[in-house]
Amino acid sequence: MQGTMQDRPLRLNHFVERAERYTPSKLIVSGTATGVEQRTYGEWAERTRKLVSVLDSLEVPPEARVATFAWNSARHLELYFAAPCSGRVLHTLNIRLFPEQLTYIVNHAEDDVIFVDRSLLGLLTPLLPSFRTVRHLVVMDDGGEAPNPEGVSVLNYEELLSAAEPAEFFLGDENAAAAMCYTSGTTGNPKGVIYTHRSTYLHTLSVLQADSIGVCESDTVMPVVPMFHANAWGLAHAGVATGANLVLPGPRMTPAALADLIVEQRVTVPAGVPTIWMGVLPELKGRDTSALRTIPCGGSAVPKALSEAYREQLGLPILQAWGMTETSPIASVAITRSWLADLPDDELADLRASQGPAVLGVELRIVDQETGAELPWDGTTRGELQAAGPWIASGYYNDDRSADSFTPDGWLRTGDVAVMTPDGYVRIVDRTKDVVKSGGEWISSVELENEIMAHPAVAEAAVIGLPHPKWGERPFAAVVIRPEMTLTQAEVLEFLSGRVANWWLPDEVVFIDEIPKTSVGKFSKKDLRDQFADHVLPSD
Length: 540
What we know:
Distance between the termini: 72 Å
Helix content: 25-40%
Radius of gyration: 23 Å
CATH class of the largest domain: Alpha Beta
CATH topology of the largest domain: Rossmann fold
Strand content: 15-25%
Structural class: alpha/beta
CATH architecture of the largest domain: 3-Layer(aba) Sandwich
Number of domains: 3
Largest sheet: 7 strands, mixed
Strand order of the largest sheet: 7-6-5-3-4-8-9
Shape: globular
């Protein structure tokens, strides 16, 4: 027996149509190289429909990849919807990738057109001759001063829009490709993930859940996380779907500029990676942050010390969310379940520093890396974290590495080592490739880093394993000291004593100016290993 419900496709068109009908006066504020600009959702929706006409006039074929090389802005948001709502595929290019990786991605995706902010044009211009399939380059003037490249036909975004008429959206299959994003490529070439209209629609609904981020119409949402990374964690789509005010920082990414936007725009939901929030916190001291209701953070594990510092200063701890490009990305959020709300403060802080339970719609499990057997949720047993759900990838675009990343029964192998509590809370203890294997036992680099960063003089810390003649590997800690403070190796080891097992203590602590970071702000263990590849640990 079948039901009697209407079979209506879940397409992104609906979000735009809802915004222009129900919340046309709500605002999208964009940071620019020279200040801020704003437009209403009604104005934005009309421009988005005009952009559909522009893509038609450029003869961009159905299913063609429409690439963006841009900051977070209203123009970028227009492309977020115009491409998929016209039967094309949005392809967000990471502006922080190495040139070789960008060339690989553009050619692998077979991009047809690239839309680029003028302030970023200088990064793209040298690579243009290496792009094999790109027919059009469209420049969006965001206050930048880079000149148009010589010998290349360049189109002006605003001129194209001014000559266009609004178009109707294409109505098609909900399982058609809507957007694609490539992984950050810390090892080997980046891998392409293709999101569908259906998966993005359902992921957006998960971001609106009260037991997730809980975005609603009354919010002012500021995605600091780049729009070129994993759908801006779904916050751009959520803003349009609900009609929440959106604040898009553009190139204004300094801690001071972000703090100004939070205060001046009365932001309720800002979202970014831990390194962002480390810099922003001192800039918010003594200012009116009463509008804030939640501070989502992801990309890497949130140090408990950082979350507690926000709670102490603002009365609001950081809300940890976990996911990856392959999970759209929200897969779990560290909400506090009602029956756990009365735990002692230290235990609540530990709970908030976990990756939390899976959001509705996502399934998570931990398995033995050798046998594939599912492991118990007892809070201590460690295994590889795997994920499944309607917005979880089932493979990579045109890439034979898919077989290594997905199980025979269709689960994503995340590459994270985790434990799960009886209450379903995930606690990631490391990446499979970052675990320090000492004498046949595992040492969690993430847990050790978090303990080191709890020291008041430590700004950042990263732990890697270095070769050891007796134990195979031993932990090595690279530490960044806070400005105008001092710290010694002995003081770090003394601080760790009693907080971790003695055999976890780093064999050496070195002090450096900065921990190398990936294109999305995570600690780059690969670059750190390269930096200390020839380093010899002190002998016993």
